[in-house]
Design goal:
Elements lengths: L2 H10 L5 H10 L4 H4 L3 H28 L11 H24 L5 H20 L6 H20 L4 H20 L5 H21 L1
Helix pairs in contact: 1-8, 2-4, 4-5, 5-6, 6-7, 6-9, 7-8, 7-9
Length: 203
């Protein structure tokens, strides 16, 4: 993998895009919680999630960069990550709350509240080490699919194995860019995947 391709992979599969990708994936799995949403309403929900979980957080981070509070969009130091992570946690929870108020239930709202918890946990871990946000986010999606498949007996084997392959590519890209040490990659993946999987058996 070249440095350029690693940068492209890291950008396309940015952690803030995971809720949007997750929702698009879930829309095409036709689970019982998705089928309850009117078809002409589904992509309005996707657009709403994209705005609140990617567009607005990205704009906030850009503003902090312009103000000199953050060195770059990559947030290369642990200290630079604190305020953006707090804002992301607030916006993720706001997304969950508004979806809940709109009578959205099931896997979508569950994923958003779980994602909010993961952001807050990574914020705490960030004070000790620069945990990989990419791996936490994508591991969280993997944990969601795994927990859902086991709990509700859905056959998502092909989707899960495809996602594991993609996560491996993303991890390789982050290592290629020297964005993290292997320990930080593994820690992020384990937090996301185990954390979200366990929620299905605790709630």
């Amino acid at each position: 993998m070249t440095t350029l391709s690693a940068k492209i992979v890291s950008t396309i599969f940015h952690p803030l895009l995971v809720p949007t990708y997750a929702l698009l994936l879930l829309m095409n799995l036709n689970t019982h919680s998705i089928l309850s949403i009117p078809e002409n309403y589904r992509y309005i929900v996707v657009g709403f999630v994209f705005i609140f979980t990617f567009l607005i957080p990205t704009l906030i981070i850009l503003i902090t960069v312009r103000l000199g509070k953050v060195g770059s969009l990559q947030m290369e130091t642990q200290r630079e990550r604190v305020f953006p992570l707090l804002m992301v946690a607030v916006l993720f929870y706001a997304t969950y709350y508004m979806l809940k108020q709109a009578s959205m239930s099931g896997l979508i709202t569950f994923f958003m509240v779980g994602s909010t918890m993961l952001v807050l946990i990574t914020l705490l871990i960030n004070y000790a080490t620069k945990i990989s946000l990419h791996m936490t986010a994508w591991g969280g999606l993997l944990g969601t699919l795994f927990g859902f498949a086991i709990r509700f007996q859905y056959n998502l084997t092909l989707v899960i194995f495809s996602l594991i392959l993609l996560i491996g590519i993303i991890a390789a890209a982050r290592l290629k860019l020297n964005a993290h040490k292997p320990f930080q990659i593994y820690l992020g993946f384990l937090l996301g995947s185990i954390g979200m999987s366990c929620l299905f058996f605790l709630v």
